[in-house]
Every structure is written in structure tokens, then in C-alpha cells.
UniProtKB/TrEMBL annotation:
<dbReference type="Pfam" id="PF00535">
    <property type="entry name" value="Glycos_transf_2"/>
</dbReference>
<protein>
    <submittedName>
        <fullName>Glycosyl transferase family 2</fullName>
    </submittedName>
</protein>
<keyword id="KW-0808">Transferase</keyword>
<dbReference type="InterPro" id="IPR029044">
    <property type="entry name" value="Nucleotide-diphossugar_trans"/>
</dbReference>
<dbReference type="GO" id="GO:0016757">
    <property type="term" value="F:glycosyltransferase activity"/>
</dbReference>
<feature type="domain" description="Glycosyltransferase 2-like">
    <location>
        <begin position="7"/>
        <end position="110"/>
    </location>
</feature>
<dbReference type="InterPro" id="IPR001173">
    <property type="entry name" value="Glyco_trans_2-like"/>
</dbReference>
<keyword id="KW-0328">Glycosyltransferase</keyword>
Amino acid sequence: MNDVLLSVVIPVYNASEYLEECLTAVCNQTYRNLEIILVDDGSKDNSLAICKKFAMNDSRIKILTHPNKGVSATRNDGIEAATGEYIFFCDADDYPEEDLADNYVNAIERWGKKKYSFIVCGMFFDNKLNKNVKDKKNILEIAHGYVEGENYLMSRSSAAVLSWLKLFNFVTNKCYDLKLIRENNIRFDESINIGEDLKFNLDYLDHSPGYIGMINLALYHYVKRRDDSLSISYHISDLEDTKVIYRRFIDWESKQDGVNDDNILVLKGIFVNDWVSRLTAYYEEYGGRSASKLVRRKLQTELRSREFQTLLKEIRKGQKISRFRYLCLRTGNFEVFYFFRGIYQIMKG
């Protein structure tokens, strides 16, 4: 299988502080037949110079540049330039284990194309922002009969479990069939700013009927380096985009063979959590405690909406939310919830 060419696409934007760590990890993969596509998204620091330095020492590297267009457009340019049989993505502020590509190729050889849709691996969640928060390793749990290091062909309904483990919604811990992407014109949606990874995965699965291949090893490091509330821009469409993608995800999950009520409740719990996260971003964007009456009214309208309250009651009945959090949100008073959320975060460290 050493003749299988894997393309790896890395979008780069103002990543000079950590880009070398990422590129070193990619270039040092134990599987050598890689096409490494670096797409600079109009960086204003010396990221492009770092890319060129690595390219001088590694002929597998291709560099593309364009004015700043965002991560989705940047990944799409990488897809257009890729020539491999399979493709995976890496973010410039993260890095893979050195045997990530090797494990992908071994799984491809073991299962064959027709049996699986895409291949998923476990992830490390490294917190370099707060040393008091322990790093995590997310894989299928031993308590549920899974063995670390084993490979599994999982039913498509297991997407809910993988989402709960934070392993489904990302694209950076997956290997895809590039031909299938090309033939079905699957691309990242450049019109949205949140949920684009999840949408890409659902678009892909709509055209690929196989199982979900799972490598039960943590092989990709997702690194938290800064406060998300400071590093991620707020967009007015984020809340509605979140609703659209989770409604679709729940509808998609409900149609899979072997799906059960708990699978759906898990996704509804994640939906509520992300809905509240978007409301929190909205609240902070428009002044927090100094927010206008109009903003506060919008927040109360969202929390008291029939859809939100129905979801809230369902996940409480299914024990997918704590009683305290449920009661805070049940009141429909966002400021009460936000106050106790702050206390919880302080206690958590």
C-alpha cells in the first residue's frame, strides 16, 4: 500500500507561532507517500516564509497563496489542488501524531473502499491556555467494550456517540476518498462561519453509504491556545446557522439503521449546548451586563421559544442535562444562567 498517495491540506493564516510544530509533525510522518498542500490565506506575519523554508527541504510540499478568504475557501483551494487518492486535513495550530497517515493507510488496506465511508481517529485535546485544565484523550471507551488500538467498522447511527465524544463534527481527524469528493462536488460551505466541518461531513455521508471506520487511537492533537471568545469572530448569522445544521444532523441520524432514542437525545443535548453557546457569544458581543433591552429581549425570546423549551424538557427527561443547568435555562432568563455559568467556570478553573 506504499503506492497510495495521501494528500494533506493545511490552511495557514497568521500561524507563525506554532506553524513549525505542525509542519515538522506532518513532514515526519512514518508513511512517506504524502502530498503536503499548504494554502496561505493572506497571512500578515511570516507564515508564508516558514512554509517556503520547509518546502526547500521537502519536495512533497506544494504552496498556494491567495488573499484572505477564510478557512472554508482555503480548504476548498486545497481540495482543487490535491492529486492523491485520499485526503485529510490538518489545522496549522494543531499537529498529528507521526503515525497518523500510516494508520489511515493500514485501515484502507484492511477494509477496502466499499465497506466504509470515511475513517475517523481519536483525538488529544491539549489545553495550553490554562495549565489547570488537564489534557484529554478522546477515544471509544473501554467501559463500553472497546479496546484502545483496535479498528472498528461502526454503524452510521454511531455518529451520535462519536459526536458526544467530540470525534464526529471535526474534519481534521478523518480521512476521505478524494475521488468521491470530486465526483459529487463536495466542498466546504463558504457562506457560513460556524458548523462548516459538520456540514461537510454530512454532505460527504449523503454520497457515501458505507460504515464509519474508527481507528481507536488518539492520533491528532487539537490544541487550545487562546480564549475562544477572544479568537473567534462573532457573526450575526451564527445562531441560525447552528440551528440549521443541528436540525439536519438530528434528521439525518433519525434515518440511520439501528438508531435508538438515546442517539437522538444525545444530539439534542449537543444542540442545546451549542444553541446556548451562540447566545452567550451574542450576549458578550453586545455588551454583556451592559446589553440593551433589545438584546436581552432577543435572548429571552430564544430561551422561551417552543423549540428550545421542548428540547430542554426532552434532554432533562433523558438525563442529558444537569438539574441545575436545566432550571437555569428553564426560567428563560439568560442573565440568571450567565451569572451561574461564570461561577461554574471559576470553580472549574
